[in-house]
């Protein structure tokens, strides 16, 4: 059995290839707990991927993820070197990726799609506040846990918004998953909080309609339309149109603004058998239920007139859509 740092035992049956290397299920002998171990194999780096750049990106991932204190981000426990390779030890997340769920079940029940997207916005709001763009919001990087919470995985291609950080990416290397990239990210690698929101829009659309090929504004069709009132369907259509706007300036101004809209659309969540356990109380849901009763008048949002764009007019909708 492989052991890293005389501390972390790796399950030989658990290795999964990832965008930054390998991900293993491990066991922390010192603290007696299961963990996830991410390893970047320096000797396997392909030509054209500068070794120094990828190493710096990996170290940056560990530091950036460690700063994001949020229940929707797996905690970083440790990082270090293993021979010529690098490793990072993270909280082990038990759940199913949205990619797995959608391939097995097709579209996600509409109320759950809204709730999942709202949770992702909560994580993005914190990341963007720390001057971090995720750059790879995809169903494979979103994990739905048995208690109904969502974890946003792999800040490994996150880019600092500071000018010096852009120098870490060599010209011609575009990071992310093409199918979910914002147009400006696919063209030139340019990213911003609005590029994350575009990717979230693609994911939200796929949750509502099932996986599709190309992204673009569409009417959200669900496999149980009765779960959403007609007015909510209309607001989701408007929100998707704004999220998937070609120009970043026409997208919502922030993840916080999108969260407020989605939170206003959230109602009671139906059972989601096979993926969310509703048979027993979960501590996280108990905690969130109490905290969620706090209301601040200044945060109230008129969902009939959502602030979808920084170029909104009096109606709250982007001018080109009115």
Automatic annotation (TrEMBL):
Q: Which residues form the Protein kinase domain?
A: 9-262
Q: Per the UniProt record, which EC number(s) apply here? A: 2.7.11.1
As given in the record, the signal peptide range reads none
InterPro entries in UniProt: Kinase-like_dom_sf, Prot_kinase_dom, Tyr_kinase_AS
Lineage, top ranks: Bacteria, Bacillati, Actinomycetota, Actinomycetes, Streptosporangiales
| Protein's name according to its UniProt entry | non-specific serine/threonine protein kinase
Q: Which organism is it from?
A: Nonomuraea salmonea
Keywords for this protein: ATP-binding, Kinase, Nucleotide-binding, Serine/threonine-protein kinase, Transferase
Give positions of region: Disordered: 302-322
Q: Name one GO molecular function term.
A: protein serine/threonine kinase activity
PROSITE patterns associated with the record: PROTEIN_KINASE_DOM, PROTEIN_KINASE_TYR
């Amino acid at each position: 059995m492989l052991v890293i740092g005389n501390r972390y035992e790796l399950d030989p049956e658990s290795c999964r290839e990832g965008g930054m290397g390998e991900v293993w299920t491990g066991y922390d002998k010192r603290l007696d707990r299961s963990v996830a171990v991410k390893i970047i194999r320096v000797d396997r780096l392909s030509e054209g991927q500068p070794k120094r750049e990828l190493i710096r990106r990996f170290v940056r991932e560990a530091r950036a993820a460690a700063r994001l204190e949020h229940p929707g981000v797996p905690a970083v426990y440790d990082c270090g070197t293993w021979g010529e390779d690098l490793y990072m030890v993270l909280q082990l997340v038990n759940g199913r990726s949205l990619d797995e769920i959608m391939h097995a079940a097709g579209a996600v029940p509409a109320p759950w799609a809204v709730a999942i997207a709202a949770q992702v916005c909560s994580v993005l709001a914190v990341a963007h506040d720390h001057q971090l763009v995720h750059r790879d919001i995809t169903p494979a990087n979103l994990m739905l846990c048995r208690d109904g919470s969502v974890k946003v995985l792999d800040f490994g291609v996150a880019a600092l918004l500071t000018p010096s950080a852009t120098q870490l990416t060599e010209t011609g290397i575009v990071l992310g998953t093409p199918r979910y990239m914002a147009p400006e990210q696919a063209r030139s690698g340019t990213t911003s909080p609005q590029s994350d929101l575009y990717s979230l829009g693609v994911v939200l659309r796929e949750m509502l309609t099932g996986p599709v090929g190309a992204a673009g504004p569409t009417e959200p069709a669900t496999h149980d339309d009765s779960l959403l009132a007609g007015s909510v369907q209309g607001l989701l259509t408007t929100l998707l149109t704004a999220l998937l706007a070609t120009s970043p300036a026409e997208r919502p101004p922030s993840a916080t603004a999108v969260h407020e809209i989605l939170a206003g659309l959230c109602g009671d969540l139906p059972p989601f058998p096979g993926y969310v356990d509703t048979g027993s109380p979960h501590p996280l849901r108990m905690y969130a239920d109490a905290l969620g009763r706090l209301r601040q008048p200044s945060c109230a949002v008129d969902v009939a007139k959502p602030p979808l764009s920084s170029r909104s007019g009096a109606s709250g909708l982007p001018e080109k859509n009115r």
